[in-house]
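User: Okay, second chain of the day. Same drill as before: sequence in, structure tokens out.
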Amino acid sequence: MTEPDLAGRRIMVVEDEMLIAMMLELALADAGCHVVGPFGRLSDAVVAARTEAVDGALLDINLAGESVFPAAEALEQRGVPFLLVSGYGRDLLPPDRRHWQVCAKPFRMNDVLETLADLVRRQPAPH
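Assistant: Same drill. Structure tokens below.
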């Protein structure tokens, strides 16, 4: 297994569970990323998705009972690749958003980093 190439990338983290947010932040920092966030509230995530200069994002689908989809849509409109993480898998995706990439919780951190690195490589976003 190769090391994901995320060094120097600005990655936004949207996660409302503090321990998971900290794990993601540490793993991304260890991979050489600059972490933007983490954001635990939908309103903050939407503002960040619209305004922050980022190369990619990790988004928890369920933020304290609210769907992260408005933030995902804002990122998609800007051409910023993102990976959704969810304990529900793909079941919560709207029918017209089945193309969005989802990593099911619980996840292996290396799988998340590799998938995110692949998304960022395929669709690099200027920042």
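Strands lie at 10-14, 34-39, 56-60, 62-63, 66-67, 82-86, 102-104.

User: Thanks, on to the next one.
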